[in-house]
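Table S2 (text version). Query chain:
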Amino acid sequence: MIAEKKRISKYSSCLNFTANALARVMTNISDDEFGRLGLTASHAFVLKEAIENPGIQPKELSGELHLTPSTITRLIEKLELKKLVERKIEGKHTLVYATEKGITMLPDIKKAWDNLMRRYADILGDESSRKMTDMLYGAVKALGKDS
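Corresponding structure-token output:
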């Protein structure tokens, strides 16, 4: 019997379809890596920013991570429940700080991030994964500038 070729989706020429399919695949890989820490990738990136930028404001997190303010708030609330970050109000500003417990997770977060990048680079190749990342982020900036 002849091996059946993998079927190409009739939607594969649509950037929206392909980007969402890629996002699902990447989410599965990142859930595997960051899940070992009891975090999603988004939680880990918020925590990493709070560690590296003590007193960061949610608005800054929103811009850096390309997430809506309401999503940032939900992520911070979940991290607070885990006692990994805390919010402090100073005047009109809410500031986010990593707790000591959160700070101790930074090496593990960096390792999970490295593992994530290594996993897809091993499949796609280092150069291809760098080029693809640059191209996709360029598209994010160009298409998202009006939203």
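Notes on Table S2: DSSP finds seven helices and two strands in the chain. The domain at 30-140 is CATH 1.10.10.10 (Arc Repressor Mutant, subunit A).
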